[in-house]
Amino acid sequence: MLTTRRMFSAVLLITLFYATSVLWATIVDDALNLPGLEEIKQAVRDGKIKITLKKIPPVTDPNGVVHGVAGYRSGNDIVLNSDVFNGSTDSGVVAQTIVHEYWHWKLSHKANAKESELAVRKKEAEFWKQYKAAHPGVSDRECDLNEILVYENGQFRADKVIEGLINSAYGYPDDPDGKQESNCVYDVDCSSPPSCTLSKNSCQSSLELSGPHIVTPSSASATVTVGPPDANNISSLIVTQYDAEAPSVSVAGYGSTGTNLVSLDTSRTSFGFVDRNTNKVVIYLYSSITNRLYNSTNPILVRTHAQGSYNPSTHQLHLTTIAVDDIPLPNISIPGTSLRWLLLTALVLGIGATLAFLRARRALSYPNSTPLT
Amino acid sequence: MRTRIGPSDPNLRKGPGRTPPLWSGLAYGARVLAGSMIGLIALAFVLSRSALKPDLLRATAHATAGMLSILGLAAYSEGMTVVLGGFRGHMILECTAAFPIAILTGAIVCSPVPWRRRFSGVVTSSLILLAGNQIRLTILILCGAYLSDTFEVLHLLVAQALMSLLTIWTGLRWIVKNVD
């Protein structure tokens, strides 16, 4: 029977949890006082963080899907995947990765701040919002990185790079009409330091800022060669011809062809399916860059999918239609968050058990007192 | 009908020298906490060496898609992923009820009650947590598909807090009824 006392206890418990959640969120939000670009640059100048370039191998999730990694934070280093300059991607990946990993670094060093993916995303979104607000008229990314990438002593000179890359993400402030080209593909040659040669390969027109949006499906086509499977049943997929006005579609890398699944390793998270029966292919490319174009405050990923045919005799995929629509972020793995909840649960359970035990003993020791149940 | 020790039980009135109730209570709380942690660690250890993990995730995705289908929605599962409209929710271990069940199992098993009651407690609690978790996942996938703006907060704060509350409520309810 639901007594007033029990109701009171239940309300108290729920209130306690709600307060904990709010407090938690407040602590996480505490570091939202954004210092902006200057702080990142200063941190690099002071040697607090270092930006380096490395070849980062792809990772495979439990589904067997291979994901490209744009970058990560390792201690005070922000490591970017050299593949992000590899011709198959656009410059915005770099800017986003630097800002994203910077906030991981920042939160990991801030007292009372929780380094969680949620917190980083919040700050990242706020960062770009502020940056955009400080540069009115900037609406999109700028293609040309040629004059701002400086490679010295095995790493990019960060003050130049960051400024340039962030400009590249939202265009130069003096862009008169605010209509920069976006989704550019670059060829980068860093073989002769200290400078990298960067040449613009192609740029596509801007995306719409709201989805779902179908991008010129009739004009997009690509031919992808599927290599023979290796010992691990992994086939390389190489774009041999690509002609599309669609944004962000670039296919290169490896795929598992053991079943109908083809996992494409690009700088974007991507995968594809080949139906061997119908020789049709559907390729999905998740672009965290176009994500920002669509919605800078919500973690919306953009799904780009292409359809076409697979020719088993030539091992070629011919992509004939390419479309882009936006979907919410799939389940995000946030290391630590669930663990904290579990530990909190165990702790509260332990405290509750103590209290329940004491109350039971008290009721037994003093039979005239209010019974427990 | 549960069995309780009567107030005339001499063990409860040993007089000077008996263990103070406060210490007994604290000791029991510590046992529950330790049991919960051992349950968590044991589960993590078992799963890290078990081939059952993908099956568990697939089953969770399948069950969630099934619940959505019962609601008349065109949901389906692709391996460990639940698809509803344009939303794809990928199951990870934390999506399952495995960890809350491990906590409660540890807490119940280390409680000083007959083994039969411990066993029935583990089974009943597991069923409650499984059901609660399925409801949580179903609501989350619905929110992901139709209220994507709220998904992250619901997923990371509200749903986890409610699951935690359900775990605590289930555990305390069992303790209050069974542990004297």
Short synopsis of the structure:
The complex is a heterodimer of chains A (373) and B (180). Chain A is α+β, with helices and mostly antiparallel strands and 373 residues long.
Helix and strand arrangement:
The complex is a heterodimer of chains A (373) and B (180).
Chain A: H1 4-29, H2 37-45, E1 50-54, E2 59-60, E3 66-67, E4 71-74, E5 77-81, H3 92-109, H4 117-134, E6 151-152, E7 155-156, H5 158-170, E8 182-189, E9 197-204, E10 221-226, E11 234-243, E12 252-256, E13 261-262, E14 269-275, E15 280-287, H6 288-294, E16 300-311, E17 316-328, H7 337-365
Parallel strand pairs in A: 1-5
Antiparallel strand pairs in A: 2-3, 4-5, 6-7, 8-9, 10-11, 10-17, 11-12, 13-14, 14-15, 15-16, 16-17
Chain B: H1 21-48, H2 52-70, E1 75-78, E2 81-84, E3 87-90, H3 98-109, H4 115-146, H5 148-178
Antiparallel strand pairs in B: 1-2, 2-3
Helix pairs in contact in B: 1-3, 2-4, 3-4, 3-5, 4-5
Describe this protein's structure.
The complex is a heterodimer of chains A (373) and B (180). With 373 residues, chain A is α+β, with helices and mostly antiparallel strands. Chain A has three domains: 176 residues, no CATH class; 112 residues, no CATH class; 38 residues, no CATH class. In chain A, the strands form five sheets. An eight-stranded antiparallel β-sheet of chain A has the order 12-11-10-17-16-15-14-13. A three-stranded mixed β-sheet of chain A has the order 1-5-4, covered by helices on one side. A two-stranded antiparallel sheet of chain A has the order 2-3. In chain A, a hairpin with a 2-residue loop joins strand 4 and strand 5. The longest helix of chain A has 29 residues. Chain A is globular and about 85 Å long. The relative contact order of chain A is 0.11. The N terminus of chain B is likely disordered. The two termini of chain B are 14 Å apart. By secondary structure, chain B is mostly helical. Helices cover 68% and strands 7% of the residues of chain B. In chain B, a hairpin with a 2-residue loop joins strand 1 and strand 2. Chain B is elongated, with a radius of gyration of 20 Å. Chain B has one domain. The interface between A and B is large, with 55 and 65 residues.
